[in-house]
Each structure stands twice: as structure tokens, then as C-alpha cells.
Amino acid sequence: MEVWMDSLKVIGRILTILPLLLFIGIYMGKRSIGELPVFDFLVVLVLGAVVGADIADPSIDHTHTVVAMVAIALLQKFIIYLKLKYRKFGNLVTFEPTIVVHQGELMTENIRKINYSLDNILQMLREKDVFQLKNVEIAIIEANGRLTMRLKPENTPVTIADMNLPAEEVDYEIPVILDGEIQRDVLTKLDKTPEWLRQQLHANHIKDEANVFYAGVTKKGDLNFTLKGQLKAGVPPIFH
Q1: Using one digit for the tens of pLDDT, what is the confidence trace for 5-42?
Q2: Least buried of 5, 75, 182, 212, by fewest C-beta within 10 Å?
Q3: Where are the beta strands (DSSP E) in 22-114?
């Protein structure tokens, strides 16, 4: 009987602590959640804490841990059911997509509401290969904190299919020198030898591979490299 009473106490703690964690998670904003929806994030967090406590403290009754894990799983299933059945409830326990750029202009009020900074938005746009706001038709921070966007029609890249051209096989670099060390197993798979690589380096006036920070070879045999301590001029000043 005592075990059942203790188990009911564990369930009661779960039902009281999860709403509090949910409130804190929503208050902290999207960027604190990352890839997971807010409630799923809290479920993973609580499960980890429950299991961690059970492993770290042998004095904890293992039955209580099992009851807690089952109760958390059932509660998570129930919340998902409510979110799917009642949209208003779903809006209360998760985030809605938020427009942060529209027709090349930042939506400052929306950005402020989701606790993002201007630096955050600009960084996420750069990760999408966008370096000019004026080129963006719309950009949205999704419920999982990721940014999706669409360029203005005049700035959308033209594809091979648009031009009715035959597609060619994409060439790419394979690293063969990393921090001055030749990757011999990679050269073997490319049917090339360290001597061949050294000849390529000598042709580019590089006498010692130890001075090479990075070198990569394409399928066509073209070599691209960066020397250690090499400073390039004209790098744009980008600060956080």
C-alpha cells in the first residue's frame, strides 16, 4: 500500500512540475528550445532527470522511476492528442511561426516578441546564403526555432531545369592534407600517391607539406590549398 501511495506522489509531482517547466520554457523563447517543440523538449529534459536520479542515487526506489517514466510517456501522448484535436490548446503549449522579414524589411516588433536579436536574424540569413535584406521576400522563424525564407522572384537563382540544359555531375573536393598531415588512406582510395601530391605542391612553389593547413583534390585532379598563417587582404569586417 505504501508503494502505491508513493507512486501516486510521483505522478502528482510530474503533473505539477511539467506545467511549470512548460511555462518557463515558453517564457524563455524559441531560441532556448532549438530543434525540439517546447513540450517535447521538456519531456526529454524531465525523463533525463528522472533516469539520471535513479542511476546516481541507489536509495531511490526503482519502482518509482518506472512509474514516473510511464506517466511522462502517457502524459506526452495525451498532450499530443489535445494539440491535434484542439488548435487553441495547441497554440497555448507551443510556438506559432513568426515573420521576421517581409519585402526586404525587418519586422522589429515580431523579432522583439520572440526574444531574437538583430545579430541572430542576420546570422541565420547568412546561413541561407543571403547577405542582402532587400533580396528577401519573406523570412519566418518556425516553431522549432529554425529560419525558412523565400527570395524575391528577381533574386531567385536560375536552375539548370529552368534553362533546359543537361545536368552535369557535380565535382567536389576531397581533403588530402589536414594541418600539415597527408591523408594517405584517402590518397589510396583516389588511386594517387604521396609523391604525386608532393609534385603538385612543388608545382605551386610549396616545398614542405607541413606548411599546408588544408589541401583538397577534386575528381578531375585539381588541387586547392591553404597555407598555415596565410593572411588574405580584403576580408570584410563582420562582428557579432
Answers
A1: 767 776 776 776 667 666 655 654 554 455 566 677 77
A2: 5
A3: 98-102, 105-106
